[in-house]
Design brief:
The chain has two domains: 217 residues, Rossmann fold (3-Layer(aba) Sandwich), CATH 3.40.50; 67 residues, 2-Layer Sandwich (Alpha-Beta Plaits), CATH 3.30.70. It has ten helices and 14 strands. The strands form three sheets. It has a seven-stranded mixed β-sheet, sandwiched between helices. Strands 11-12-10-13 form a four-stranded antiparallel β-sheet, covered by helices on one side. A hairpin with a 2-residue loop joins strand 11 and strand 12. The protein starts with 7 loop residues before the first strand and ends with a strand. The protein binds adenosine-5'-triphosphate. The site of adenosine-5'-triphosphate (ATP) has 13 residues, from helix 1. Pfam families: ABC_tran. One of its GO terms (biological process) is response to antibiotic. This is ABC transporter, ATP-binding subunit.
Amino acid sequence: MEANEHEHVIEVTGLRRVYGGGFEAVRGIDFSVRRGEVFALLGTNGAGKTSTVELLEGLASPAGGQVRVLGHDPYTERAAIRPRTGVMLQEGGFPSELTVAETARMWAGCVSGARPEREVLALVGLESKAGVRVKQLSGGQRRRLDLALALLGDPEVLFLDEPTTGLDAEGRRDTWELVGALRDGGTTVLLTTHYLEEAENLADRLAIMHEGRIAVTGTPAEVTATEPSRITFELPDGYFVGDLPPLAELGVSDHTVDGRTVRLRTRELQRAATGLLTWAQGAGVELRRLDVRSASLEEAFLGIAKDASADKTAPKEYAA
Ligand SMILES: Nc1ncnc2c1ncn2[C@@H]1O[C@H](COP(=O)(O)OP(=O)(O)OP(=O)(O)O)[C@@H](O)[C@H]1O
């Protein structure tokens, strides 16, 4: 098939997953992932990320709705898509007595057209550990081995379930670089993560799940824009909050005062900051400890999780 960057490689509509005891872990979700995109699924603990990814990987069948991966149903047409996808599970569960190279070789035997194991071990920085038994690897090195195995088939679509859990800061950066390079090479990546910084760094688009539903979908910038920005400063000596220009007219939605420290929240950051600085200049005063910042993905995440608990009916979505 001709590579088309607008092609939806993953399409999920009305997807539901119900476990044996009747618990509905995924409650009708919709999203799509374009070719060559990195898409992150974020969420609170137990939000339903792994339950969703398992449906995309064809490991279980949905209780309702539909999944298409590369145009196929991953459960009933597993044979068609398996050679074109790579899966990194949360727990690889490989025999701990085998060495790293033996594990890769064993796994390569299950993958049609597998790359040489040395090549994938080099990609994840494990070539020097080829002769080491899996049980002697650190937790982070095991995650890297899991990733190497997912790359053996040179997949078009890569599923990464918490790829950097247990990695130190350097290992995490290395994995981000590798995922970035894979994306640049045209690989479509769907990942779950608990690290908001990871999603901010890697994801072209993301969805935040909460209690089986998607609360918001969009680019990291679109999602952070759902939360107000903040301006913090110290009141100049001899001034009170009442001396500032009317805050509502500057687009400030609320403010708090703690001693001399004033904290403003606004969805119109430029207008509020300009108004405040113009006032300070006019008054000939300095706003000490001035800090102006957009919401981080973490603030948006916390705000969305809180809102989603209060209102389960209206997911926010931005243009794909
Ligand atoms: N086999 C199962 N039987 C019954 N309930 C399950 C089963 N597996 C998961 N669940 C429940 O489904 C919900 C979603 O779990 P899931 O593992 O998909 O969440 P998650 O978003 O991946 O969480 P985490 O971030 O903690 O890994 C949780 O409430 C979990 O307890």
